[in-house]
What we know:
By secondary structure, this protein is mainly alpha-helical. 66% of the residues lie in helices and 5% in strands. The strands form 3 sheets. The protein has a 4-stranded antiparallel β-sheet with strand order 3-4-2-5. Helix 15 (332-355) runs antiparallel to helix 32. Mean pLDDT is 83; it is low at 870-876.
Amino acid sequence: MSEISDSFLVGLERLLLRFPKIPVLLVCVACGFSLYYTARNLGIHTDTTEILSKELPFLQDRSRFLQAFPQDDEAILVVVDGATPERATQALAYLGEHFRQDKEEIEAVYIPGEGEFFDRHGLLYPDLDDLNALAAKWVEAQPFIGSLSKDNSLKSLLSIIGLAIASADQDLPVDLKPLLDSIQAVIRGLLDGADRSLSWQQLMFGDDQDLLTTQRFILLNPVLDFNALVPAEKALQSVRAIVRNAKLTFSDVNIRLTGEVVLEHDELESVQRSTQIASLFSMILVCTALLIGLRSLKLVLITFTVLLVGLILTAGFATLAIGHLNLISVSFAVLYIGIGVDYSIQISLRYQELLQKNIPQQQALMQAVRKVRPSIGLCAVTTAVGFFSFIPTAYTGVSELGVIAGGGMLIAFIISVTVLPALLQLFPLKPEVKDSRNTFPDWIYAFPMRHRTFIKWTALGLTLAGLGLLTQVRFDFNPLNLRDPASESVATFKELLKTKTASPMTLTLLAANEAEARTQAQQLQQLPSVENALTIFDFIPEHQAQKLDIIQELALVMGLRSDVFPPLQQDSAENHRAALTTFKQGVEKSLKDQADSHLAASLQSLDELLQRLLTELEAKSKPEQSALLDRLQKNLLGTLPDTMNKLLQGLNADVVTLERLPQDLSERWLSKGGIYRIQVFPSKNLDDHQNLKEFIAEVRQIAPNATDLPVIYLESGNAVVKAFQQALMGAFVAITLVLLLVTRSIKDTFLILLPLLMTAILTGAATVVLDTPFNFANIIVIPLLFGLGVDSGIYIMNRLRNMPDQTHSVLQTSTARGVIFSSLTTLCSLVSMAFTPHLGLASMGLLLSIGLVLIVVCTMLVLPAVLTRHMGDRQK
């Protein structure tokens, strides 16, 4: 049977070399059809949830959650930080209005705590004691508020404060010292050319952080196009344009974007930028490596042509077999180039070697193909079988990659033994006279054989040490650690993780009824790793009857006749200056009369600033004076009407029930099907691996089906690790069986696998030593090293077996050069990634560099040292 197949292949080779234009023409037609079919039918799935099997339990839990509460899926988080609550609220209103107008790119806009409901019922949410304290404070301040409601001007404000300073009267809504300090900050900013608004909310609402927050959030549901390479591109362009305009309007407000959509989009952009940079350097390095290895520009061009043909046909196969690429299988091109180019290099170098022996061109080409074909055929089969072993795993991304890459290896083999010889027949190389001198000194080639004992024991020691370190190998499941830490989205996300009330990494539980929701929330509150467990019932204020009584009494005492506080009252520059002068005189008098007062230091600083301000006014023209004084009045009193209007609206509060909650709020906590949501906030920073595992473990004791980002991150990592373990074990077993069937020798099989085994062990150990754990990006290195490791062992083993003269070093053969330059080509194509800003790609480039160097060392140094004794024994 073997003789028949050999005769058939020899006849086919002769036919191809006799009519070389036919296979070239046929493959050109095939490439044309492949390109056309691929362009029309190949899709790209960039949804990260698509790369794992939907049958995994944690993804089913996530699916149930999103079915009940779809608003939380694929959201953009806009973080707004203002110097004062008022500025944050103003920027929030601006952004909300413009986001809602962009209906083409934004499906929904949700602003927590915004709207008429919270303006009216906000005073029901502070604790009862806090509300009593606030009410008492405002009752004392009633004369102050009443005066400003009649004359909301700089003159009125300074007059009231001047009287309070003179008489130590505390009938103000704020303590005098913080108020005086705030006025100083406003005047100092004005003198420095900056507008700083006095925050009346901060002064009047005391320490209540719920009412005084300067950080607000907006949740956006963008329109995503998963058929595009970057699904959120158009939506984010629109969102960022609105944010840019908002920053121009509110220059003192910090507006940032984060959330899974932005994080993934920024990562894709980072990957694109990184790969563009890396590709430029890689192309230069690959061309240089091939020129050095092949020593012929014509051969380099032919090799690139064969590589391109194989890639085109593999893309067509991917379109036919799968129909789309995902974020993992898109790397098939890298694997194809890294392994597929190996076959062309082996044939080309053997062809050159035979030409240098003065063998006629066509005969040299036939012999090269005939001698190399068994090795590369076995390599193609074993590598393809290895990749096909990925198919049964639950990691859909890797499973689909296995189909495409496995088929690609077989395509690479077929193209290498058909199209490559045909092109070399059409464009033959000129015979070269072989330089009798070796590239390196003879002792280098003889080193593995002369020092085989030392090499074998050293290799054994390193391997055993590596096995010991493998127990410490870990997988970093946190995708944040793959992304550029300097990017806005990552920095903002990590900043929020440090908070206890705004962490984006929370867990979600679903409850079938009210009793279950309340019970589980109470149980979760007792856990050490839980800061809070929120349900829709937390939006129903406690002690509403008592609070409403306080609010109604406060409304009567305040005695404001209007529901709207009057705006700023315009006045002349002369009146403003007169009010400032009178106020300064009052400050000076208080400093003389109350030199030991606790306000002395503040009054002294204020007096100096007032003097500076009056001096500057003297140097200005009347229009300039008027403008500066109007700015001063606006900066001191501009936020007071909004603050008072908020208070006035709060005085109209009534009873809050589930039915009265705003729809956009209630639908996030109680689904239309009657499912209750419990949102669990962590007490620790979940950027720490141990904190995250502890948080999930404790919550799962009460709710095993808890879901959301922490679970997705952890379980995705576990699923990936398990999938790769299963795939690699299956691939190793399958390759071993194929080698046993072909070589019919356990010893030969072990020796062929030796470079792979050592490379795998030492690469894993290197991740521990360098503290570069496996992650979602660099784990793709494993199948590439797997294929190259097996191939290298096959090439060297077969060449040694067929070498008639064992005194001649295998390192001096074209096979060894092929292994080295194939690895060097792959290394050059990917090593530049180690220097990119994307941490995932950088770790991939680093591990690939380490792995490829180990493959060369294990194949060129260790394997010959072991094989020298073995082949000698076989010959005896």
